[in-house]
Amino acid sequence: MALAQLSGVTYLDPDRAHPSFVLYTAPDGVTRLIDLNGEVRNEWPFAGVPARVLDPAINGGRLGDIGVQLSDAPDSRGGIYANRTVGQVSWTGETLWEWGAQAPGGAARQNHDWELLPNGNFLFLVTIPRVVPGLGDEPVGDQGLYEVTPAGDIVWEWLAGDHLSEFGFSPEGLASLRAAAVRDPGNPWGYLEINSAKSIGPNKWHREDPQSVFGPDNILIGVRKANVILLIDKRSGAITWRLGPYFDAVPGSEHQRINTHHVPRPLDQISGQHNPHIIADGLPGAGNVLIFDNQGGAGYPPAPLGIYAGSRVLEVNPVTRDIVWQYTAEDSGQPTWTFFSSFVSNAQRLPNGNTLITEGMQGRLFQVTPDGQIVWEYFTPSTGLGVAGEPEVKTPRVPGVDRLTETRMIYRSQAVPFEWVPAGTPHSQKPIDRRFG
Question: CA 112 from chain center: how many Å?
Fold first, then answer.
């Protein structure tokens, strides 16, 4: 059965899959909460980039609230410029909080990531059109971080363009970046395309060494176009740790980068990565960095990639910088290229040691065990032209495509504990196997 024909849950082993709901925004602009049998248990008529159910422990005990984008800017150029307001929406769809009109320029321009912080403030990854010193005389889509109070005040900010000298670019790389910014200053996806920002939270590295750079308030970001992962010191704004953008060449790495499974081993070339974050306390692998390494074209200058395109999920010890676990399609007995998303996507470690993976370009969500066995797999039935088989037409949501496009693209998904939503919300978890017909 071809991927384009697959829809809904194709496989579920309830004895080995971690039980939870799963939240995602489909390309029809609707955010849905499904159970592991694929049944929709709630939905909201808003997209999130990403949508996320809030942890009741830091949300005043409220159950089922989500964060989403609420409105687009009237002068939107699309991409990272598009969003006017973001907000918090209840289980029943009531808007509880909205922010953006108070932002500089009257629009939030939130994109790619956000977080509700333990202190009750929100951390937003935003776009700031401005002239960046050293990148020409025209405004470009710079990105930055705002910490916003419930009252809507910005109490902390960080701008990427002020720290380019700390990214580790070679002279050649900086010249390549500058040329790209000058050539296309109005690029709706910006010159860096930072796609994640997450405070690292309590962690073993900081407990072992209180002077460690891994302070709980510090923020890990992923810079897709630059192939670099950076740690921002919250107090100073300085970049104090990084992975990339360049890696020592490994003999034969153009072929073996995807296919070498021996771990631990030094981290090799990541490219176009998404959602690097520290695995939280209490989860298997806590303290390590989990990365969806797209292996999509990226880099200043562009990184050499393998001939046989395939993505991988990497778990990296941030102190030794070694890969300590990885997943590729070959771990599930499939050819490398059968797991590939050159953009979007993410991975999330689950309490039983499994990993939830979003193969976003394919609209595929799946869970794998530590040894790579697939124990749950789901393909969204919703497309950018409406639900499959229905005539409704929606705006295309594929980066770089300038016409209506039938896509199943999912940016990210989130495994949601049952106790985070109102009690009594039904869920089913019956065995399913329809992978082969």
Answer: 7
Question: What number of other Cβ atoms are within 10 A of residue 293's Cβ?
Answer: 28
C-alpha dihedral (347, 331, 429, 283), degrees to nearest 10: -50
* Distance (Å) of CA 257 to CA 70, 249, 253: 40, 10, 5
Looking at residue 390, its pLDDT comes to 43
Strands 382-383 and 274-278: unpaired
Predicted TM-score (pTM) of the model is 0.94
| 327-368: pLDDT as tens digits | 999 999 999 999 999 999 999 999 999 999 999 999 999 999
* Cα of 116 vs its chain's centroid, Å: 15
Sign of CA dihedral 135, 139, 140, 141: positive
Contact 8, 381 (CB under 8 A): yes
Say how many CA atoms lie within 13 Å of 362 toward its Cβ. Answer: 26
Q: How far apart are CA 86 and CA 68, in angstroms?
A: 6
What is the Cα–Cα distance from 350 to 345, expressed in whole angstroms? 16
Q: How confident is the model at residue 387 (pLDDT cuts 50, 70, 90)?
A: very low
Residue at token pair 């949601």: 416
Q: pLDDT for 3-55, tens place per residue?
A: 446 899 999 999 999 999 999 999 889 999 999 999 999 999 999 999 999 99
Could you report the per-residue pLDDT of 48-97, keeping only the tens digit for each?
A: 999 999 999 999 999 999 999 999 887 777 889 999 999 999 999 999 99
Give the pLDDT band of residue 383 (cuts 50, 70, 90): confident
Distance CA 360, CA 411 (A): 6
Task: Tell me how crowded residue 342 is: count the other CB atoms within 10 A of its CB.
Answer: 17
Burial zone of 392 (CB within 10 Å; 0-12 exposed, 13-18 middle, 19+ buried): exposed
